[in-house]
Automatic annotation (TrEMBL):
It comes from the Bacteria. Residues 4-241 form the Carbohydrate kinase FGGY N-terminal domain. This is Sugar kinase. It comes from Microbacterium aurugineum. Gene3D superfamilies: 3.30.420.40. Pfam families: FGGY_C, FGGY_N. Keywords: Carbohydrate metabolism, Kinase, Transferase, Xylose metabolism.
Length: 507
């Protein structure tokens, strides 16, 4: 049976699928892992795990379906990450993860001062935030000079797998556009003056689009993985964009809403929209642009609460459903790991407001589901204000398995969400990209045939006035609590706030 293989390296696990030519999943495998948090604001990972788990997943899949004939390999991974390696491709330090890692605040401020906000936005599309790869590269150069002295190449999870499989040193345009400010979004190329200034000594990866073939499996990779010699491997991209592909939410007017460890949103269009509150990037395919956003916590928040209480998810969901809209007067800010878009505040912290002795764990869990939904609404409204033409919303990711969470998001936002038949996510999208890359032109599959929509989640219009009011309170709660929360964040770090000049209330 002809199959394509798709593997995604995520924040909390790696997942792989074998997919037949009709889009049916023949086998799947998962490996859980943890990130490292050695200091406040640091989130990093040993890149050896990425390859080890890839090999283990592929070996399991091939053993489970011995009749599978692998015709293409698709890869994706969390990002943007910064993995720097030496001339022998040995990592010089653990990989620094995406916007949840906030260590480079000082570098963001310095690069912004040196280059200017207007010029950074003109070249790269976005202002510099904790999501940007450039300041993290600068952080290594400044804070770990011995590691920097040995650094020669830059990888992310997908491109690291490509390197190990094929020997090719590439990075896709979408990932590269998040190595701000080192990528020219209109020219779709590296911005050489700033690359030399802030990444001198690092060889530039060759740029490709996500679905293009980067190379073929080498004899060495075949011996380790069992994937046949010469099998084509695509360049791949960051998981959120591959997830969008997996559900067909990658056309202009589409918004992909990814329910995972973090919540991620990708609006696809043809125009480069620039706003300081969101991330402007290249799309997964030539000729497309994305306006993206992400909450720092979503599934991470509910998992944290599950761990504290010792309850299982079915119990918590049942209790949250019984609690009802508004969680009996509770309101939560979901900023337990700082926040990315649209407030771009690494010093934001979680807040639980309205708590009384009468509240239950079901009320708290309901309030946390509503908190992530309020964060989604804030992002969607910001995108639309920036000019995003959002005509269709598709939900994807592990969180879509819980119908209550989907319904809460639709009720809070007032949006209809389309849910596809297969929501396994980025690994499936990677397998689809590999299938299209290796098929002859007139036999290329369509994602609507592989993965049709199975249902639509419609909002309860009767709850709209209530959630409009709650959203207003949500916005006011952040503004009102920010001065105290920033002081608490500074105390947690043992230093001064990494925020703009204090307001009079903070002084």
């Amino acid at each position: 049976m002809r199959c394509t293989l798709g593997v995604d390296i995520g924040t909390s696990s790696s997942k792989g699928v074998l997919v037949g030519p009709d889009g049916v999943i023949a086998a799947s495998a998962t490996r859980a892992h943890d990130v490292e948090r050695p200091h406040s604001g640091w989130v990093e990972m040993d890149a050896a795990i990425w390859w080890e788990e890839f090999v283990a997943i592929v070996r399991e899949l091939l053993a489970g379906v011995p009749e599978a004939e692998i015709v293409g390999v698709g890869v994706s991974g969390m990002g943007p990450c910064v993995l720097l390696v030496d001339e022998r491709d040995a990592p010089v330090r653990p990989a620094i993860l995406y916007g949840v890692d906030t260590r480079s605040t000082a570098q963001i401020e310095r690069l912004t001062h040196e280059l200017g906000v207007e010029e950074i936005t003109r070249v790269g599309g976005s202002t510099l935030t904790s999501q940007a790869g450039g300041p993290k590269i600068a952080w290594v150069a400044e804070e770990e000079p011995e590691a920097w002295e040995r650094a020669r190449r830059l990888y992310m999870p997908a491109s690291w797998l490509v390197r190990r499989l094929t020997g090719a040193y590439v990075l896709d345009h979408q990932s590269a556009s998040q190595v701000s400010p080192l990528y020219d979004i209109e020219g779709e190329r590296w911005h050489d003056p700033w690359w030399e200034r802030y990444a001198g000594g690092i060889e530039q990866p060759r740029l490709q689009w996500a679905g293009e073939i980067a190379g073929e499996v080498t004899a060495e990779a075949e011996s380790v993985t069992g994937i046949p010699l010469g099998t084509p491997v695509i360049a791949g991209t960051i998981d959120a964009w591959t997830e969008a592909v997996s559900v067909g939410a990658h056309e202009p007017g589409d918004l992909m809403l990814m329910y995972g460890t973090t919540m991620f949103l990708v609006a696809t269009g043809e125009e480069t929209l620039r706003t300081p509150s969101m991330w402007t990037t290249a799309g997964a395919f030539a000729g497309t642009r994305s306006l993206a956003g992400g909450l720092s916590t979503s599934g991470a928040l509910t998992a944290w609460f599950k761990g504290l209480t010792g309850a299982d998810y079915p119990e918590l969901l049942a209790e949250a459903a019984a609690s009802g809209a508004g969680a009996r007067g509770l309101l939560v800010l979901p900023y337990f790991a700082g926040e990315r878009t649209p407030i771009q505040d690494p010093d934001a912290r979680g807040v639980i407001a309205g708590l009384t002795l009468e509240h239950t764990r079901g009320d708290l869990y309901r309030a946390m589901l509503e908190a992530t939904a309020l964060g989604v609404r804030h992002n969607v409204e910001t995108m639309r204000a920036a000019g995003a033409d959002i005509r269709r919303i598709v939900a994807v990711g592990g969180g879509t398995q819980g119908r209550l969470w989907l319904q809460v998001v639709s009720d809070v936002t007032g949006l209809v969400q389309e849910v596809p038949a297969t929501t396994i996510g980025a690994s499936y999208g990677a397998a689809f990209l590999a299938a299209t890359a290796t098929a002859v032109p007139d036999e290329r599959p369509a994602i609507t045939e592989w993965n049709p929509m199975s249902e639509r989640i419609r909002p309860d219009d009767g709850l709209r006035p209530f959630y409009d009011s709650l959203f207003a309170r949500y916005r006011r709660l952040y503004e009102g609590s920010r001065p105290v929360v920033h002081q608490l964040a500074a105390a947690q770090r043992g230093g001064s706030p990494l925020t703009p000049t204090p307001t009079p209330e903070e002084s």
